[in-house]
Amino acid sequence: MSTNINANVLKSFIIKTIGSDKLTASTAQKYGVDAGKYAEANVDENAYLELDEILDDSELYEQFAVMYNEEVEQKRDAKNEEAEKEEQAKVKDKNESGV
Predict the structure, then answer these.
(1) What does each C-alpha distance from 50 to 12, 72, 82 come to in angstroms?
(2) Are 24 and 54 in contact (CB under 8 A)?
(3) 3-state SS, residue 44
């Protein structure tokens, strides 16, 4: 699974995922970010990480890229599942109509 995601796409994903353009320590913990890694990435030592700080830290970038890829995969699987159900319904209808 590639973690080479366009920075703008990843920024949008992060904002959508965390509901903000700032990552607090409690939100980071919710997404499995190690407290030490969070502190290391927090270069200006304020109460949150800004998007640029997340993207500049290779480990955080990779973590969110993996989350993005997993979401894309889940959506693709759901879409494929829905298409398969529709195909099965068509086949069933065709068989029931005697064609």
Answers:
(1) 13, 24, 38
(2) no
(3) coil
Residue 3 has pLDDT above 70, yes or no: no
CB 62, CB 55: distance < 8 Å? no
Q: Enter the pTM of the model.
A: 0.76
Q: Tell me the C-alpha distance between 95 and 85, whole Å.
A: 15
Q: Which amino acid is at 3?
A: T
Burial letters 11-49, b for 16+ CB under 10 A, else e = bebbeeebeeebbeeebbeeeebeeeebeebbeeeeebb
pLDDT tens per residue across span 59-99: 999 999 999 999 999 999 999 999 888 888 888 888 877 65
Angle at 86 between CA 85 and CA 91, to 5 degrees: 95
Query: What average pLDDT does the structure give for the chain?
Result: 89
Q: Dihedral of CA 35/39/45/49: which sign? A: negative
